[in-house]
Amino acid sequence: MGVTVMGRRIGPRRAALTGAVLGTLPDFDVFLVADDPIDAFVQHRGWSHSLLVHAVLTPLIGEGLRKFFTLPRDNRTLTYAVTYLCLSTHALLDAITVYGTKLFWPIWPEPIFVGSIFIIDPLYTLPLLIMTVSSLLTTAWTIRYQNMLYAALVASVVYLSWSMAAQKWVTHKAKDLLADHGIKPDKLLAIPTPFNTFHWKVLGIDGEHSFNLYTTVFGVSEMAGLYVYNRNLNITSCNTNDPRIGRVAKFSDGFYRIMVNDGEVTVADLRMGLTPNYAFRFALGQLEGEKFMPQQTRRLKGRGNVLTDLDWMFKNIREIPAVRPAEISARLNFQQYDTARPAPSSSIHC
User: Fold this and answer.
1) Which site in 79, 179, 315, 316 is 20 to 30 Å from 32, CA atoms measured?
2) In this structure, is residue 128 part of a structural domain?
C-alpha cells in the first residue's frame, strides 16, 4: 500500500520500506504480556487492529514519519493517507482470515472474521511478494513497474473476491448435502484447508457433537468426507467457576471442542488447524477418576504429518476420493450419522 500511494512521489524503495514499517505496527500487540495463554490468544488482533484506533493514531504516526523518515513535508494529507491505509489494510486483510479481528473496538469489541482464505496462500501472497522484492530493488518509477504493480494489486483483489465466492458456494453445497441426509447443525462454517481455496473444511456444530465435512469447490457432493467428534460439553457444565473454556467458546464463536486424552483435559478452537492438531489448543487440567482437577493453562503445539495431509488434499482437489489418515477413526457415512456418531460422555464430578 505504501508503494501504491507514495511510490511515484518518493520512489518505490523508500515507499516499500515505509509501508513495511507501518504495516508491522498493528502486530506489536504480540509483545503485550498476558497472564494466561488463553488471554494472549483472545487478546491478539485487538485494539491495535481497530480501524477507529488507527484513525486516532494516524496524525501522531504521520507527523513522526514526516520528521524521521523525511516524507513529503509539503503534503501532510498524503502522509496521513498512506499511514492510515497501511494500518487499516493490515487489519482488513487479517479479518478475511478466520482468527478474528476487532475492527471496531471499542464501539464493537467483538472480533470479526470472514474465514475465506488461509493465513498463508501462495496464489495470493506470491504476486505481492514479487512486487515487494521488485520495489526494494527499484529506485525509479517507470511505466513498466507501474503496470506490474497495478496488475499484482488487481490479482490480489480478484483472488480475495474469488475466495469469498468459493466460501459461499461451498457453504451452499454443504447445507444442501446435509439437509438431504436430515442433518441440521446449529452452526456451519466453511474454511479453506491450508494453502489453497479449492479444498474446504466445512465445520459443523450439532449440540454435543462437531463434525468436519471435507469437500471441493467443483467436486460432486457424493465425494465429501464426514468426520464426527464428541465435544465433551459435560466438562463445561462441571466447571462453572473456571472461565477458560468460556473465553475460548466466545472467541471462537462457538466453534470449540473439549477433548480428553490420557486423562488430560484440553480445549481447542476448531477453526484453525487440522484435526487433531489444532493451532490453538490449551491444556486445562487432569481427570483423576471421575473428578476434574484444574491446572495452570498450557498451550499445546503439534503440526501432525504435513506431507501426508498435503497428499490427501491434492488427491481430493484432483477428484481422487481419499480418507484423511489422521481422522480415519472418526469417519462416518452420512447414513450412519444419527446411529453411529459418538455418544455423549458421562458426567464428570467436580
Assistant:
1) 79
2) no
Cα gap 313→192, rounded to integer Å:
11
| CB distance 277 to 266 below 8 Å | no
Q: Quote the domain boundaries for residue 272.
A: 168-340
CA 61, CA 2: separation in Å to the nearest integer? 14
Quick check: is 321 in a domain? yes
**C-alpha grid cell, residue 53:** 484506533
Cell of residue 275, nine digits: 484435526
Identify whether residues 285 and 187 lie together within a single domain.
yes
Same domain, 80 and 188: no
φ/ψ of 230, rounded to 5, equals -85, 135
Q: How many CB atoms lie within 10 A of CB 289?
A: 9
Cβ atoms < 10 Å from Cβ of 212: 21
How do residues 189-206 score in pLDDT, each as one tens digit? 999 999 999 999 999 999
The per-residue pLDDT for range 31-64, each reduced to its tens digit, is 887 889 999 999 999 999 999 999 999 999 988 8
Domain assignment present for residue 127? The answer is no
Taking the C-alpha atoms of residue 31 and residue 261, their distance in angstroms, rounded to an integer, is 32
- What total number of domains does the chain contain? 2
Long-range contacts, 295-303 (Cβ 8 Å, 24+): 297/36, 297/37, 297/38, 297/244, 298/37, 299/37, 299/41, 300/266, 302/277, 303/277
